[in-house]
Amino acid sequence: VSRQLKEEIRRGFARLEDPLAGLLAMLESSSDWKGRGHSLGYCITTELQLWIKAHPAVPQSSTKLKKLQARVLGMLSQCPTNLLDPLISIYQLHTADRNYLLEHVSHLYLQGNYKEAAILSIKLKLQPDQDVEKMCTPLLLQDKANLVEEYVAEYPELQRKLLQTLDTWCNPSFNIRDITRPYQGLSKYKPEKFNHRVLSKLVFRLLERFNVDSALCPNVINQRHLRTLKYLFYKRFVEKTMTEENWADHIQSTVGDNRWLQEQLVQLLLRHCDARGAARWAQCCHVPPEMLPQAVAEELQKLHIQDRVEEVTKAGNYEASRKKDYYQLPIPRENIHFLQTWEEMLQCWEKVLQPGQVVGVDMEWKPSFGMVGKPRVALLQLALKDEVFLLDLPQLLEQAEAEGEKEKLPHFIQMLYSDATITKLGYGMSGDLSSLAATCSALKDTEKQMQGVVDLLAVDKQVDGLSPEHSHKERGVRQPEKGLSLLVQHVLGKPLDKTEQLSNWEKRPLREEQILYAASDAYCLLEIYERLCKDPESFGLSSDLTDSLVGKQSKKPRAKKHLNKQEAPSPSGQECQGPRTEPSRPPAPISPQEFSVVCDNMLQGLGRYLRCLGVDVRLLDNEDDHRKAAEIARQEGRVILTSGLPYQTLRSQVGEGRCFSVNCSEKAKEQALQVLKHFNVQVSLGDIFSRCQ
C-alpha cells in the first residue's frame, strides 16, 4: 500500500467522530473485503488498528461498544482469515460477554458452518467451554484434521479428551457409521478419509505432537501391536528371516502382560504351529495356561527339558550350515570391542580420529514397528581396517551426564563427521543421522557440517547389474537380497546375513549373534569401498571414483526407513522382470481400455487415479487379505499392482510379468506414470473420465 494512501486513510479516521462505527458502516456497505488477498477494506481495517494504538484515548461507551460488537460478530463468519484478528482487536471482542459469544458460535455451528465456528472459537479462545467431540467430528469428516489440531493445541485437557474419543472410534467393534449418520448431507464430506486406519494415524500424530502418554489410547496401541505381531509371524514363519531368539525377544516385549494381546498371540500360534509348538511358545511368552485351548494346554503339561536340548542342537547345526552362504567378518572376534565406559572410549577416540583414516559407520536402533516417536540409536558401530568398535550409546550418554560432561560424546561424533581428512563410509547416512539427532539434540546440525563422507547408497544406484533377481539363484526359498546386502553380494560375492536386522538393540547384554551382525554391517563398508576404488570400471563406475566420492556430499541421500531399519528399496519396476542378460523390448502399446488391474489395499489412491485415465481397475477393500488380489487376477486376467512385502508373496501366484511393485513413497500421480510407462499404456484425451468414477 502506498504511503500516500495510508496517510489519506489516517486523515479520514481523524476527521470521523466515531472511527469504529465508520469502519463498520464502510464494511457493511461493501463486499470487496470478503475475497482473499489484501483488499482495500483490509488495508483500511489494519490502518485503523495501527491508528488506535497511536491514539488510545478513543472514547467509547460500553453500551455503544456492545452494539458495535453485535454487528461485527455477524460479519466475522464471512471474513477471510486475515481480517479476523484486526477486527477482534479493534472491537475488543475478548471483553464481550462470553455467553453471548458462545451462543453466536453455536448458531454458526447449527447452520452447518463448522469450519467458521471452529476458527472463531480458536480466535476468541472459547474451546474450554465447548464440547470437543461435537466441535471436531464434522471437521474430521471434512478432512480438516489440521484445524482440529489447532483447535486443541493450547489445551492439554481437550487434547486428552479428543484422543480418548478418537481411540473409542478405533475399537474394531465400533461402527463408524454411528458417527457419520447425523452428517449425511455434510458439504465436502470425504468418507474415504474417515476410517479406522486414517483415524489411527491421526491418533499417533497427535500423541507425538502433544507428547501425551500413549496409555490413554489402548485400542489404537493394541491394534498397532497386533499388526506388529502379524509382521513378526510373517518374518519368522513365512519369510523365515528372523532367528528364534530375536523373534522371541520381540514377541515378549510386544505382548508383555496384556491379556488381549496374549489372546491374539495364541490365535496366531495355532495358525502357524502345531499344538506342541504353540505350547512351547506360549510357555516362553508366559501366556496364562487358562487362556490356552485344551489341546495346547495338554501339550504344555508334557513339555520336558529334552525338547529344549533338541531345539538348541537343531539351531546350532542350522547356524553352522548357513555361515558358508553369507559374508563373514575377516577379523578375529577379539578385535570387536563393545564399549560402555569413557575409559574404554579413549582407545577408540585415539585410533579413529587419525588423519587419513577410513571408517565404516553404521547405527542400530530398536525397531519402532510404527509406534510413536523417532527411533533412538542404541548402538553406534565404527569399523577400522583391523578392528571394530561398538559404542553402547545409551550407557555412554548416561555416564557422561552423571559426570556432568554430557557434551563429550557429541563432541567426539562432531569431530569425526566434520574432519575432511577422515573418510567416513555409510549406507543411507541421512537416515542414520536423523536418528542420531533424535537421540542427542546436540547432534542435530551434524549433517550440515559433515565433510569427507561417502554414502554408498548413492554409489549403489550407479553400480551395473544390481537387481534383486540376481541375488537368489540357487538359494532355494530365501528372499531376494536388497539394499546393502545386495551391494555386498555383488561386490564381495556373498550377501549379508540379515536375520538379526530387526533385533531389540536396546536389550542388554547383546547376544553374540547381534554383536557379529553389527560389526559386519559396518566392516563390509570398508571392503566394498576398497574394491570399488581398486577396480571401478568392472562395476560400471567412472575411473575417478575416489575423487568424486571423498568430497562433501552434493546430494542428500535417501533416508533409511525408520519402521524397522529396512534397507533402501530396490528400484521399482525391476521386480516385474525375470533375470535377463540384455535389455528387453518394451511391450506393444495398449490403450487404457485394454489394461485391467487389481490394486492392493495400500494403493487405493493409485487405483482411483488410473480409473480416471480410463483403466479397468478393481480395488481391494481395507479389510481384504492381500492374497485376494491373486484370486481376482487369475479369474479375470488382471495385473496385480502392489508394494512391499505382499509383492514377494503375490508374484509367485500369477504368471511372469503379471505382478508389479509400486513405490509407496511416491504420490498417486507419479505411481500412475510409472505403471503406464512400464506397461506402455497410451492414454488419449478420450480415455480421461471414460469410466464411471
Automatic annotation (TrEMBL):
Q: Where is the composition biased (Basic residues)?
A: 553-563
- Is the keyword Membrane assigned to this protein? no
Keywords of the record: Exonuclease, Hydrolase, Nuclease
Keyword Nuclease recorded: yes
Kindly give the InterPro entries that the UniProt entry links to this protein. 3'-5'_exonuclease_dom, Exonuclease_MUT-7-like, Mut-7_DEDDy_dom, Mut7-C_RNAse_dom, RNaseH-like_sf, RNaseH_sf
Q: Mind listing the GO molecular function terms for this protein? A: 3'-5' exonuclease activity; nucleic acid binding
Stretches for region Disordered: 544-591
Ranges where the 3'-5' exonuclease domain occurs: 336-537
* GO-annotated biological processes: nucleobase-containing compound metabolic process
Protein's name according to its UniProt entry: MUT7 Exonuclease
